[in-house]
Amino acid sequence: MRFFLSILLSFPCFAAQAWPDKPVRIVVAYPPGGGIDVMARQVAEKLTPQWGQTVLVENRPGANTIIAADAVAKAPTDGHTVLMTTDATFSINPHLYAKLPYDAERDFVPVTMLVLLQQLLVANASFPADTLPELIKLAKTKPGGIRYATYGSGSQPHLSGEMLKYKAGIDMLHIPYKGISLAVPAVMANEVELTFAGIATSMPQLKAGRIKAIAIGGAQRSPLLPQVPTFAELGFPEVETHAWFGFFLPAGSPAEAVKRVFSETSKILDEPDFRQKQLIDKGYEVVGSSPAEFAAYIRKDRESRGRAVKISGAKAE
To answer: Do you find a cis peptide bond into 20, omega within 30 degrees of 0?
Structure first.
């Protein structure tokens, strides 16, 4: 009998339970209702029948994504807790904060980058400059007289604005607001002249003529706004405006969990209807990178964002 039992236990189905064997929790580092939260819920809904387990979304916003990252870093390493966050957590925060409760390199396994989002530099409709060269010329005639809004020191828009100032040799006044949703309305109301914002946020106001687009980040123009030139083609490739959404697991999570979160999320991203209507039409660049590709990308991204943080002089406590 003992011999028979040992043979049974030697098979994988008896030696270990298949993953997942209980509900999976996706911890989103931002409040409900934003683009990353909506995407997390759409993906969770599609993963639930694939895994035969409920996939729950838990919002843990605050402290520039640190609260969510710290919670997942300390979660059980059984693969049932997934972090969904942006480049702020892994590319920017390590340079912005003197001390973090998580180690960006050692405490997590990068699983996949879902999407990349390039931001637009937008201006009030009455702003006298229509192009980036005109903006730079105007800024040089009135140092500090042009204001640009962001959602905080060290945020993606702040780093983009400071890099533009540095490379163009101009001075603009940084006006931080308390949230991303306040910057575009501030431009519309002419409280400030400029801000950086995503296509999905900007498009309704662009179509209504309340704001205008000056330039966009990335290597290529957006198919949704083909008339808007990139910073790179205008001679400023160092002005990086991107943000990305990605999945991470705590370090030490099972390889099977990493593999399945990556492969089955990639299948969702490849679904033609979801890919077009929920991602491409909203200005996202679909990525679906492998764990190794994502890890390599983060290393380079962290390095470039470090340069931008240094130039900006941004610090956080």
So the answer is: yes
255-270 and 35-51 are packed helices; what angle lies between their axes, rounded to 10 degrees? 110
For the entire predicted model, the pTM comes to: 0.89
Q: Where is pLDDT greater, at 48 or 314?
A: 48
List, for residues 252-310, the tens digit of each pLDDT value. 999 999 999 999 999 999 999 999 999 999 999 999 999 999 999 999 999 999 999 99
Query: Given its phi and psi angles, is residue 33 left (phi above 0), alpha (psi -120 to 50 degrees) or beta?
Result: left
Q: Please classify residue 281 by burial: count the beta carbons closer than 10 Å to its beta carbon, then call 0-12 exposed, 13-18 middle and 19+ buried.
A: middle
Q: Check for a shared fold between 18-117+243-312 and 119-216.
A: yes
272, containing H or E segment? helix 272-273
The topology under which CATH files domain 18-117+243-312 is D-Maltodextrin-Binding Protein; domain 2 (3.40.190)
CA distances from 39 to 18, 71, 269, 308 (A): 26, 21, 11, 28
Decide: 154 and 314 in contact? Cβ < 8 Å.
yes
